[in-house]
Amino acid sequence: MSELEATARSMVAPGRGILAADESSPTIKKRFDSIHAESTKANRRSYRQLLFTTEGAEAFISGVILFDETIRQSTDDGTPFPKLLSEKGIVPGIKVDTGAKQLAGAEAEKVTEGLDGLRERLQEYHGLGARFAKWRAVISIGDGIPSDYCLDANIHALARYAALCTENGIVPIVEPEVLMDGDHSIETCYQVTERTLRKLYSELYAQRVKLTETILKPNMVLSGNKCSTQAGIAQVAEATLACLRNAVPAEVPGIVFLSGGQSDEHATAHLNEMNKLGRAPWELSFSYGRALQAAPLKAWGGKPDNLEAAKQAFLHRARCNGAARSGSYTADMEKAA
Length: 337
Ligand code: 13P
What we know:
By secondary structure, the chain is of the alpha/beta class. The protein has a single domain (3-336), classed as Alpha-Beta Barrel (TIM Barrel), CATH 3.20.20.70. Helix content is 47%, strand content 16%. It is built from 13 helices and 10 strands. It has helices at 3-11, 25-34, 41-52, 68-71, 81-87, 118-127, 148-167, 186-206, 233-247, 264-277, 290-300, 307-324, 331-336, and strands spanning 17-20, 61-66, 91-95, 100-103, 106-112, 132-139, 171-178, 215-216, 254-257, 283-288. Strands 1-2-3-6-7-8-9-10 form an 8-stranded parallel β-barrel, surrounded by 7 helices. Strands 4-5 form a two-stranded antiparallel ribbon. Helix 7 (148-167) packs across helix 8, helix 8 packs parallel to helix 9 and helix 9 (233-247) packs across helix 10 (264-277). The structure holds 1,3-dihydroxyacetonephosphate (13P). Residues 20, 136, 175, 258-260, 288-291 line the site of 1,3-dihydroxyacetonephosphate.
């Protein structure tokens, strides 16, 4: 097994999953605004330190995705964050795309940027301790969209990113996110997700990427958030698994879902249900941002006095999602907290 495949497999080890803590500066500002905390560099460091120093979280967290600012930061005692994480057996990762921008000639669609200079940036991040990376493409569902133009542009970039990652000793997480925003049905989400994933795997093949050295980070197949009929837990789990089985080769070591705006408990329950169903050739895990951080962020509220409560809130969500990796999450776990 190649070193990259071994890293990819460790990222989807049983019982554990990934913490996405790679919010860009504008996104973390939005999160901090929601708790009336100021988004200063010092506050952002304190908040990330709180998450990374939560004792016991390493039992449920296999990797953390960092942002450029964060991978260069250290704990109060001067330990660089990547070193702290590695010593706990958590693989440090890095977001390398530079954001989704408006796609020229396609008003309602976006294309993710960040390929220029990427080889050199990956080499620097590897030196800073990163062993995996993330690139997120954003696909919207709406009137006549996504267009083939939008899908082709985004998927081409995702595959170029993935090829550069493996060339430089970094496992690529490929993330084509079909957004849940809109009044579309779960069936439409299924079709768009399948169409996106089929293009993705055909392009990864064309660009000579070894799938055993990659991780997929997809959306779940959900009803649009403004759809009048919302699919239940079992339907979401069945539809998501069916869609993935149709489009994702078995060589991929693991699939780590994004939470995408689902409630904390829905994100956990959906993953749990899929792992209960079984019959999947890949590990089914999580790479949650909001669904792991909403509770600790709220408990922290930007106040040093609340550090312990925030750590407990984070540990609780990590434990619940860790249980969902084997289908052993129950509603009682929420009550017990
Ligand atoms: P959410 O789980 O909040 O969707 O974030 C995951 C992520 O990393 C999106 O790129």
